[in-house]
């Protein structure tokens, strides 16, 4: 007998797919996998004006990148008949009615309530059911409190009277969010509604609709808000990106899954923080989700991504890294030198998107700063010049076919013994890179090769001679 757990992610295709919706998708997916249940993707595209095909494609591409494969797919735009039947039933049962109030009248009512410091709501005078057109509203006769039994937050009570006669549909063929969601959750036999905390105000309305239609009420679990470093609601000003932009700047999907999973949920202490998918599925539970907001830390994401870059095999890393380097930069390297360069950068990058600029810095000849060559005054100009002369003479003796990091290290060891490590390696590295910070000197000689290494040493020597 199969599991009775059926969950859904229900994004609206009205904008780019963001990390908050991705977190909701992941928690639903993990819960379905843990319970051997069904994970449903439901595109909530009833907003005809704002819904766009490219945004649906962005949602699906984001889920595919994360590896969150759905078991069933539905679009609300293809389910209008279900909503129409349910709306007709509520109208026939006198549990809904057509409201003929104008926008201006409703705005005036709202302004009056704000002035009187009353909760905003519309208690309609058109509840007699005599109208046959206009917005369709729920006939709210409830005088009791509505209890939302939330797995994460416990019981939350709402005063039903404060909800007023809330809207259900623009017309018989255009349902609004709360009504369409209730009908779909029932038709698709959704057992658990796992979604963001921002949907909590919708929940008592959805419960009242469920009860009016005689439908089973799903179990609720409302996830904490995502926050920026300043603990305000996460937004673009915190550097938050659309999901696929994280891919584009070089984050790995497994690192993103791990990072997103820890936004508001935590495993047992002994499990650690670097968690593969199997571990996440095994450890996940709704009861371990926190109530308070979850801070999205770019630093933690960078750290996790670096850990996942380390976990890749050499072949996996090279294949993925290659896609982040432009053809312009690749063309400036010989194939063997290119592989050495991306291998050398592997422990140094947090995002693979950094590779293009970093590899460009290695191959680019910069205008030398004499102060950099002299370690900002720590090495005398005459001593640095002598070191470069000795390096040129020694490295010229290495056969071209044998020129590599190991050979260079062996050949210059006598100079290091005589002059000291810093006095030799700093001018060598600065001459090869032209920068204060770069790869190590042995890595640079290995990547640049004999001819380019010697040429850069000669150019640096000429700079010091001026």
UniProtKB/TrEMBL annotation:
Q: Keyword Methyltransferase, does the record have it?
A: no
Instruction: Enumerate the InterPro entries for this protein.
Output: aa-tRNA-synth_I_cd-bd (IPR045462), aa-tRNA-synth_I_codon-bd_sub2 (IPR020751), aa-tRNA-synth_I_CS (IPR001412), aa_tRNA-synth_I_cd-bd_sf (IPR008925), Glu-tRNA-ligase_bac/mito (IPR004527), Glu/Gln-tRNA-synth (IPR000924), Glu/Gln-tRNA-synth_Ib_cat-dom (IPR020058), GluQ/Sye (IPR049940)
Question: Which segment of this protein is annotated as the motif 'KMSKS' region?
Answer: 233-237
Every Glutamyl/glutaminyl-tRNA synthetase class Ib catalytic domain range: 5-303
**In what residue span(s) does the Aminoacyl-tRNA synthetase class I anticodon-binding domain sit?**
333-460
Gene Ontology MF terms: ATP binding; glutamate-tRNA ligase activity; tRNA binding; zinc ion binding
Cellular component terms (Gene Ontology): cytosol
Q: Which reaction does it catalyse?
A: tRNA(Glu) + L-glutamate + ATP = L-glutamyl-tRNA(Glu) + AMP + diphosphate
Which of this chain's residues are annotated to bind ATP? Answer: 236
Which UniProt keyword terms apply here? Aminoacyl-tRNA synthetase, ATP-binding, Cytoplasm, Ligase, Nucleotide-binding, Protein biosynthesis
One BP annotation, GO: glutamyl-tRNA aminoacylation
Compartments where found: Cytoplasm
Q: Where is this motif: 'HIGH' region?
A: 11-21
Q: Could you tell me the EC number(s) of this protein?
A: 6.1.1.17
What does it do? Catalyzes the attachment of glutamate to tRNA(Glu) in a two-step reaction: glutamate is first activated by ATP to form Glu-AMP and then transferred to the acceptor end of tRNA(Glu).
Instruction: Name the family.
Output: Belongs to the class-I aminoacyl-tRNA synthetase family. Glutamate--tRNA ligase type 1 subfamily.
Quaternary context:
Monomer.
What's the protein name? Glutamate--tRNA ligase
According to its UniProt entry, this protein's organism is Candidatus Giovannonibacteria bacterium RIFCSPLOWO2_01_FULL_46_32
């Amino acid at each position: 007998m199969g599991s009775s757990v059926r969950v859904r992610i229900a994004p609206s295709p009205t904008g780019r797919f963001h990390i908050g919706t991705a977190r909701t998708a992941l928690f639903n997916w993990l819960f379905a996998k843990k319970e051997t249940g069904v994970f449903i993707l439901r595109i909530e595209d009833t907003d005809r004006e704002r819904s766009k095909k490219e945004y649906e494609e962005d949602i699906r591409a984001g889920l595919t990148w994360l590896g969150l494969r759905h078991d069933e797919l539905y679009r609300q735009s293809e389910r209008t008949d279900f909503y129409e039947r349910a709306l007709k039933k509520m109208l026939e049962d006198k549990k809904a009615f057509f409201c003929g109030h104008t926008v201006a009248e409703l705005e005036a009512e709202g302004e009056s309530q704000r002035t009187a410091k009353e909760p905003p709501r519309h208690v309609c005078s058109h509840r007699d059911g005599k109208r046959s057109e206009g917005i369709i509203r729920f006939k709210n006769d409830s005088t009791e409190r509505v209890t939302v039994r939330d797995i994460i937050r416990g019981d939350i009570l709402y005063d039903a009277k404060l909800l007023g006669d809330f809207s259900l549909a623009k017309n018989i063929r255009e349902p609004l969010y709360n009504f369409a969601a209730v009908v779909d959750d029932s038709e698709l036999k959704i057992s658990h509604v796992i979604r963001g905390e921002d949907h909590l105000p919708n929940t008592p309305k959805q419960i009242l609709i469920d009860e009016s239609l005689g439908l089973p009420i799903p179990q609720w679990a409302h996830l904490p808000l995502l926050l920026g470093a300043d603990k305000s609601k996460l937004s673009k000003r915190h550097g938050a990106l659309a999901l696929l932009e994280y891919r584009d700047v070089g984050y790995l999907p497994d690192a993103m899954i791990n990072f997103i999973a820890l936004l508001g949920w935590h495993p047992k202490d002994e499990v650690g923080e670097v968690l593969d998918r199997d571990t996440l599925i095994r450890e996940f539970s709704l009861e371990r989700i926190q109530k308070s907001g979850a801070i999205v830390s770019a630093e933690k994401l960078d750290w996790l991504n670096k850990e996942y870059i380390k976990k890749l095999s050499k072949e996996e890393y090279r294949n993925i890294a290659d896609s982040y380097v432009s053809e312009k930069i690749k063309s400036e390297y010989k194939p063997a030198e290119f592989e050495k360069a991306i291998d050398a950068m592997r422990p140094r990058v947090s995002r693979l998107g950094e590779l293009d600029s970093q590899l460009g810095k290695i191959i680019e000849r910069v205008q030398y700063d004499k102060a950099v060559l002299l370690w900002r005054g720590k090495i005398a100009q005459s001593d640095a010049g002598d070191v470069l002369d000795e390096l040129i003479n020694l490295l010229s003796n290495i056969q071209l076919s044998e020129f590599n990091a190991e050979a260079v290290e062996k050949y210059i060891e006598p100079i290091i013994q005589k002059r000291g490590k810093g006095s030799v390696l700093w001018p060598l590295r600065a001459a090869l890179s032209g920068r204060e910070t770069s790869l190590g000197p042995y890595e640079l000689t290995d990547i640049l090769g004999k001819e380019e290494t010697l040429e850069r040493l000669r150019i640096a020597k000429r700079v010091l001679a001026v």
